[in-house]
Amino acid sequence: MESLSVFLSVCLPLCNLNLFPSLALHPKGLLVATGQVGRDPSIRVWDSETLETASVLHGAHARGVASLSFGAQGRLLASVGLEDAHRLVVWDWCKGLRLAAVDGHPSRIFDAQFHTYAQQSVVTCGVKHVTFWSLHGNVLSGKPGDFGKTEPVTQLCLAFGPDGTTYTGGLNGDVCVWKGHRLANVIPQAHGVSSTEKQRGMWIC
After folding, report:
1. Are 189 and 205 in contact (CB under 8 A)?
2. β-bridge partners, 166
3. How far is CA 87 from the centre of its chain?
4. Domain-embedded: residue 129
5. Tens digits of per-residue pLDDT, 34-54?
6. Distances (CA, A) of 99 to 75, 76, 175
7. The domain spanning residue 9 has which CATH number?
């Protein structure tokens, strides 16, 4: 994995400069996808050993690519853009094909991830929302996360359990536990966030 470390040592500073605001690692560990900022941002899949481009995807987003995620098998790649509709797109990146696209949410999406244990499922989260998506052919259908009686909180990141559980990390430091599209439990203050850090937009995921 030394070549990957070299690649990331080059890419991560660019991510911090917002030249590549999104990055995803292929399940097999060799390939890396990056998303650009710009009027017509492209997505590039790189070989971390040769530093050569394996695929270029474009024409789906405007302003920038906010989030990227490879599917568990590595063939599919999901992207979310910075345009007003925050479009969610699923690609067959090997063939350079856009398989499905849908408006993600009117509010900013911070993370989008293929479900680790459900190949045709994608989850997105952002400003006071979580959405659970199913891919059927070239159609993405979404189901909003049901917070129940809990006040919706901005969700920043995602993780998955083998029993189908989804975990989201909140801006307030809470971890939300989801069963299906419904909120099942909240782990309060799993990460403490001070009022100063909230004002500065700082968090841990």
Report:
1. no
2. 160, 178
3. 12
4. yes
5. 999 988 899 999 999 999 999
6. 12, 9, 32
7. 2.130.10.10
Q: Is 16 helix (H, G, I), strand (E, B) or coil?
A: helix
Residue 25 lies in a domain: yes
Domain that holds residue 15: 2-200
Give tens-digit pLDDT for 13-32.
Answer: 444 445 557 999 999 989 99
Beta strands in the chain (DSSP E): 22-25, 31-35, 37-38, 43-47, 53-57, 63-70, 76-81, 88-92, 97-102, 109-114, 121-126, 129-136, 139-144, 155-160, 165-170, 175-179, 182-187
Residue 205 lies in a domain: no
The pTM of the whole model exceeds 0.70: yes
Is 100 inside a domain boundary? yes
Best CA proximity match to 95, nearest among 77, 69, 110: 77
Domain total in the chain: 1
Mapping DSSP to helix (H, G, I), strand (E, B) and coil, where does residue 82 land?
coil
What φ, ψ does residue 25 adopt, rounded to 5°? Answer: -100, 130
